[in-house]
Amino acid sequence: MKSLSRTFDKLVSRTLDRHVRLAITGLSRAGKTAFITSLVNQLLHSGTHDALPLFAPSREGRLVGARREQQVDLSMPSFAYDEAMGALNSQPPRWPEPTRDVSEIRLALRYRVKGSAMSMLQETAMLYIDIVDYPGEWLLDLPMLNLDFASWSKLQCEKLTGCRAEAAKVWLAAMESVDLNATADDGEIARISELYTDYLHRCKDECGLHYVQPGRFVLPGELAGAPVVQFFPVTGDMPEKPAEGSYYARLKQRYDYYCQHVVKKFYREYFSSFDRQIVLVDALQPLNQGMEVFGDMRQALSELIESFHYGRNSLLKRLFSPRIDKLLFAATKADHITPDQHANLVAMLNQLIYGARQKVTFDGIAIECISIASIEATEAGYVAHDGKQVPALRGTNLDGQALTVYPGDVPAKLPDAEYWQKQGFDFQAFRPKAVSMDDPLPHIRMDKALQFLLGDKLK
To answer: Residues 278-283: what's their mean pLDDT?
Structure first.
């Protein structure tokens, strides 16, 4: 009888235990590493601190606690949580290193069951959360799956305006000596490809642009030096019937291989298995850098969302092709503007993703937009100015200088030409606050994000 009872208890436990796989998505510099670090940190402290009032299981006292578990895929590097916390707890505190490769972390949450007939048989259950991190640059390669080499080349050349045109001068000069019909020289292809990669780095680092393709060129990971990351778009007229072994044929071959064996593989191995997705958007830095950078971010975000595979979730579909059934858009770095501007930030985010929202909502996917600060770096308050109390932020910038500032107004809609002429927004980058290792990281609305992404899984 005892053996039968233990078997029954195990069966009930398996019935109640759940699993969710989270996709943390965002362009470079959107704050993915900070978000994952904070999410893990908040949950690990959930059993001893009341820092998540908007997260129903925590507010109701049903969240017993969380612990880190060994990840399922042992061939994938583990997310560097300890290193990230080490950076945040250093003196002075600094931001964790940004993502440079794919990594994963698994959490187990124990919670008290609510409103279920099974709760009469077992008081608690487990929710296992798998979180995958990956460079934002790699995401921008997904639209390449819908383009052949000629179309992709034409698109890249059409983008050569403004700051891009200046950054591309050396690469374009090298291209002038290339006869696309001539027999390819792999050494010359490698040389010009390096110049094209330098151009992409300049777009990202000097111009502040997000849309760089191929993304693996700037963060190649294990592919560094491989021929698959040695090609470039061609300019001018393209051969109608390129000879075998010609420059054009060789570049096209590598482009096709890259799409099939790098981009598609990345999509199949990771995105096809996610249940829930959060898309992190840093609209403040582009807003500060001007119309060209903001427009580039908007286009990159739009094409990125188009690449994801959404659809209504069901048990039958999940057996064969998992689908995302909840999608959260979060405007990050909300602590870098005063609280009175948070509503405007969310309104602007809603306009940024308006087209995608219509499509996703039609497919029956739950969607929400919020503003967050994964790790709060400033204190909000008021200062006297011209006899009035005005909102302001206080913090320490990256150079260690204490600042009290009002960054300016965030537009409640997409900026028009008049806004860019005035350009009154002054974004400041702050270092993280010093915090005790025994306390959860300070945040803004991480509990609201957790409630949307996980709340229904913890009932």
So the answer is: 93
